[in-house]
Each structure stands twice: as structure tokens, then as C-alpha cells.
Design a protein that fits this description.
This protein is α/β, with parallel strands linked by helices. It is built from nine helices and seven strands, in the order βαβαβαβααβαβαβαα. Belongs to the short-chain dehydrogenases/reductases (SDR) family.
Length: 251
């Protein structure tokens, strides 16, 4: 069960090698979390992540999970919940894709959409149902400011995150009053392996900063978290710019 500050004893990470997710897990383990499930494709990276968190004092297990195989989500994730209550699910998987390449390769673009949106819808609904059955818990969804308004530079990724964000907000409304808390996290540019080599955007942040914002959001039982917080004002302005003006911006 969560403590008086809303922090979890048990955590299920969907996307077990995500740098943001692992930074969040480290932070929560330092506070109170003792049981962690890392769900992801079996790999040396997943095993290394589990070993690292074990060194911090947590009981860590891995579970085979592939966002692109929704037919087995219910079975794979159901086994985790069958082991006992899960206080928090962190939905952290996703892929950036390669915009220039993906525009010329519809199959690659579809893969981005299926990973970031379709896979998240499937896994999100499976976990939401399990959380509702146990009567408590938080579902934290890593969205992105890229979903606030599609940009020429990454509209394939941005559109998939826009769908995920809308889904998570609606799911939160559907679960209101059930004891299940849904929190949408909207980071800006985060310095990770996924963004390595890309031009750094203004207000860039780190996995550790996102993790700190997640912890604060859990304590406040927030529904939406921006990282950094100033992006809320920036994106509000950009969202309302006339399209002709927005199109000419260097974004």
C-alpha cells in the first residue's frame, strides 16, 4: 500500500530499460518502494537494470513484455498482479522514430504509432482494470509536450503522443472515484539515449528531473505534470498560435 504521502511500496514499470523509468524507480526505492517489476523485451539491458535496482535494496523481478504484441498483454501483466497488489504502474515505453525516414516508409511510421499509442492503450487498459479490481493504485503515463501540437520536425511521433495523452486523460476521468489515480507526465526534451545526437531544445531536462517531478506529482495526487513546469505556459501560447505563424517557427 502507499504511504501517507502517496508513494508506492510496489512498482510495475512498463518499459523496463527506460532511463526516465529507472531514474524514477531509483528515487522511489530511496523513499519507500521495495518491490519492483521491470517489464520489457528480454535483453542484457533489462537484466542489468534489474541488477542495478537490486543493489539499491529492492526486490526486483523481470517480466517479458512487448508493446507490439498486445495479444499477450493481459496474460503477461496479469501474472504480475496475481503475485499481489501493485501500488503504481509506470507506463514508460516508447520510440522516437526517424521522422525523415519514416515519412518515406509508412511501415516504420506505423511501428511508431503502434508502439507509442496502440501498445499503450492495450497495456494501459489491462493495468487499469487490475488496479480497479484491487481498489487502489496509480497509473503514471509518460506523455510528451510533443503531443500538444504537431510540429513539422516530428509530427509522426507527436501525433502518437497526442493520442496517448488524450487516452490517458480520458482513462483518468473514467477511473475517477474508483480509488485509481491516473497521472499524465509531459516532459519536454529529455537528455537520454533516445535523443542523443539531436539538437537540444530550449528548456531541456534530465531523467532525474522528470523522476523528481513524478514523485512530487504523486505526493500531490496531481493529474498532469509538466517537466519543467514552465513548459505549461510555453505550450499554452504555442497551442493557440495561428497555424501560419506556427509553421514559420524554427521548431
Amino acid at each position: 500500500m502507499k504511504d501517507a504521502f502517496g508513494l508506492p511500496q510496489s512498482l510495475l514499470v512498463l518499459g523496463g530499460t527506460s532511463e526516465i523509468a529507472l531514474a524514477t524507480a531509483r528515487r522511489l526505492i530511496a523513499r519507500r518502494t521495495r518491490t519492483v517489476w521491470l517489464a520489457g523485451r528480454p535483453s542484457p539491458g533489462l537484466d542489468e537494470a534489474a541488477a542495478h535496482l537490486r543493489d539499491l535494496g529492492a526486490d526486483v523481478r523481470t517480466v517479458a513484455f512487448d508493446a507490439l504484441d498486445p495479444d499477450v498483454h493481459e496474460d503477461a501483466l496479469g501474472k504480475v498482479f496475481a503475485e499481489g497488489d501493485v501500488d503504481m504502474v509506470l507506463l514508460a515505453f516508447g520510440t522516437l522514430g526517424d521522422q525523415a525516414h519514416d515519412e518515406r516508409d509508412p511501415g516504420a511510421a506505423v511501428r511508431v504509432a503502434q508502439t507509442n499509442y496502440t501498445g499503450a492503450v492495450s497495456a494501459g487498459l489491462v493495468c487499469a482494470s487490475a488496479l480497479q479490481t484491487q481498489g487502489h493504485g496509480s497509473l503514471v503515463v509518460l506523455s510528451s509536450v510533443a503531443g500538444e501540437r504537431a510540429r513539422r520536425a516530428n509530427f509522426i511521433y507527436g501525433s502518437s503522443k497526442a493520442g496517448l495523452d488524450a487516452f490517458a486523460q480520458g482513462l483518468g476521468d473514467a477511473l475517477h472515484g474508483t480509488g485509481v489515480h491516473v497521472m499524465v507526465v509531459r516532459p519536454g526534451f529529455v537528455r537520454t539515449r533516445m535523443t542523443a545526437g539531436l539538437p537540444e531544445a530550449p528548456l531541456a531536462t534530465t531523467p532525474e528531473a522528470v523522476a523528481a517531478a513524478v514523485e512530487l506529482g504523486l505526493r500531490r495526487r496531481a493529474e498532469t505534470v509538466w517537466v519543467p513546469g514552465t513548459l505549461r505556459v510555453v505550450m499554452s501560447a504555442l497551442r493557440h498560435l495561428p497555424r501560419g505563424v506556427f509553421r514559420r517557427l524554427p521548431v
